Amino acid sequence: MTRRTPTGAAVLQPGITKAITEAVLAELAERGYARLSMEAVAKRAGVGKSALYRRWPSKLNMTLAAVADFSVGRAEIPDTGSLAGDVRKSLEAMAHWLSHPQFSRILADLVAEMGRNPELSDFVEGMIGRPRRARGRILLDRAIARGELDPGIDIEFALDLFPAPIYWRLLVRDGEIEPEYLDKLTDFIIRGLGAH
């Protein structure tokens, strides 16, 4: 028996959601979070504001949903068969994520805004930080299972080692991430983790 959508119920069309998400990211990159408005997003997406409010209750929810959709999917958990290979692939994916032309502007703005807006900070941690770290934990758990890392390793500390140097180099120093840099960083992280 086929279930029908009740008369009057909103049907969220994926194409419209995608257009809105792209509009949110474009507006964030151009205007920043503080100047982002539901009106501007709706106009850019070619929809009415009601289409936004059917999906998200607020600007905050809409923003973080769009940023999380963009970010969490780029948290690759490669399985190359070795810790060194997994770390290298993970760092490469992280560098691509953080150096994305649009997202690098968004992230810098969000980080600044998080210092002024604790609610935004909590949302970013919940919707982006924790899901990305959960994927990184899989990588480390596999290395423990293979005997490459000690089971007592400080996983939370280890997870901090992955994004910090890349973030610093790209967004603070405005540097480049070359393959040689990723190779050196991989070696440094592997040694820092005490890999066998």
Protein model, in words:
The protein has about 200 residues and is mainly alpha-helical. The protein folds into two domains: about 55 residues, Orthogonal Bundle (Arc Repressor Mutant, subunit A); about 120 residues, Tetracycline Repressor, domain 2 (Orthogonal Bundle). Helices cover about 70% and strands about 0% of the residues. The chain contains ten helices and no strands. α5 crosses α10. It starts with 13 loop residues before the first helix and ends with a helix. About 5% of the residues have low confidence. This is TetR family transcriptional regulator. InterPro entries: Homeodomain-like_sf, HTH-type_TetR-like_transc_reg, HTH_TetR, Tet_transcr_reg_TetR-rel_C_sf, TetR_C. One of its GO terms (molecular function) is DNA-binding transcription factor activity. It comes from Mycolicibacterium obuense. Keywords: DNA-binding, Transcription, Transcription regulation.
Q: Which features would summarize this protein structure in a list?
A:
transcription; Arc Repressor Mutant, subunit A; 70% helix; mainly alpha; Tetracycline Repressor, domain 2; elongated; TetR_C; TetR family transcriptional regulator; transcription regulation; transcription cis-regulatory region binding
How much of the residues is beta strand, in percent? Answer: under 5%
Which geometry do the CA atoms define?
Answer: elongated
**Main β-sheet description:** none
In the CATH hierarchy, the architecture of the largest domain is: Orthogonal Bundle
CATH topology label of the largest domain:
Tetracycline Repressor, domain 2
Average of per-residue pLDDT values? 89
Cα-atom radius of gyration: 20 Å
Q: At the fourth CATH level, what is the homologous superfamily of the largest domain?
A: Tetracycline Repressor, domain 2
Order of helices and strands: HHHHHHHHHH
Percent range for helical residues?
Answer: over 70%
The number of E-state strands comes to 0
Weakly predicted, low-confidence segments: 5-9
Q: Number of DSSP helices?
A: 10
| Ends distance | 57 Å
Pfam families: TetR_C_11, TetR_N
InterPro entries: Homeodomain-like_sf, HTH-type_TetR-like_transc_reg, HTH_TetR, Tet_transcr_reg_TetR-rel_C_sf, TetR_C
Protein name: TetR family transcriptional regulator
Keywords: DNA-binding, Transcription, Transcription regulation
